[in-house]
Amino acid sequence: VPPLLLLAALLPSALSFLAPPAPPAPSFLPAVASATSPFTKLPSSVKPGVVTGPALLDLLEHAKKTGWAIPGVNIVGTNSINACLEAAQSYGGPIMVTFSKGGGQFMAGKGAPLSDAACVAGCVAGALHVRQVAGLYGVPVVLHTDHCQKAWLPWMDGLVEANREYFEEHGEPLFSSHMIDLSEESLEDNIGICKTYMEKFAAMNVLLEFELGCTGGEEDGVDNTDIDSSRLYTQPEDVAYSHEQLSQVPNAMFTCAASFGNVHGVYAPGNVDLQPVILHNSQKFLKEKLGCEDDKPMKFVFHGGSGSSVKDIQYAIEAGVIKMNIDTDTQWAFWDGLRMYESKYHDYLQGQIGNPDGAESPNKKYYDPRMSLRAAEETMRDRLIQAAKDLKCVDVL
């Protein structure tokens, strides 16, 4: 070996003693799992970052069997996305980041012409942000989209195409799952259309969330404030029919948003009559019909979760709920952070110069948007940590 090449090869190791050892991570920082190491309490297929396909199914099955549910949070921008990821890191469990059609439009920018293409572009941009940073937080993340009613199916078609392109390049879909809400249609039309999309989803390992019955109230352009109260309660026979039809699709993965009195928004006590026993009855009926050993053959999801009692939430989890939607409560938490920040620094936010410290004192560090937005992230994070406790989703990794 030529002497110069030998010296070049040996020099790094010879000088290694001069490099100081890497400082240990501060003890107050949460441990972050590496992108390749499995979690000790979860199936080995589940890794930090976005979870799709068989790994997603393993995660949801594990949640169902061990009795906890994932917070599913509607977001409107990178600040609320980051609050979700930070919360999951803090409580030690997975998180579902959810984009609505309106949320996608907001991500694209309200100045962009309103169109299905803008809503798709915003959702894709948000999903790519999640994929870029999720691994930094060391938690499993489910990328999901919310209520897609019949008139909005062109939006879903755009998301299917985005998944297809990502799947062809990366071997997995961009999103983990999508919700199609055709609960306003007849049961046959609802499940028939869902089955068509299930076939498209199954080819790319995308999970379908479908709705039976209607969630009351109003959220993000879906207004069910005046529907007949009987439509708020799903029948076990409808659950069994849906399971039978969708299971006919090879590689089908699905969850059911069965209605049991759920209402979007937060109301005074007595205005919402939740009946989680409907989910228990549906599981019993389905088990008998299928003749299976699983006491909870359907994976349910809980819509309209904001403002619900912990007792109702945990009784629903016992019936196989593996995810609960949270939107209204986190919207308030985000605003509350902004409100408290403004209240605390009010006298420093009235002009660029001049505050209680002096007539010529600058205020830039107070009106820097990162300051108030960070305060909002923190209060949204804290609300989600509480939600995770209610869902028994703490320290499950």
From TrEMBL:
Pathway: Carbohydrate degradation; glycolysis; D-glyceraldehyde 3-phosphate and glycerone phosphate from D-glucose: step 4/4
Keywords associated with the record: Glycolysis, Lyase, Metal-binding, Signal, Zinc
Catalytic activity: beta-D-fructose 1,6-bisphosphate = D-glyceraldehyde 3-phosphate + dihydroxyacetone phosphate
EC number assigned by the record: 4.1.2.13
Pfam families attached to this UniProt entry: F_bP_aldolase
Family under the similarity heading: Belongs to the class II fructose-bisphosphate aldolase family.
Name of the protein this chain belongs to: fructose-bisphosphate aldolase
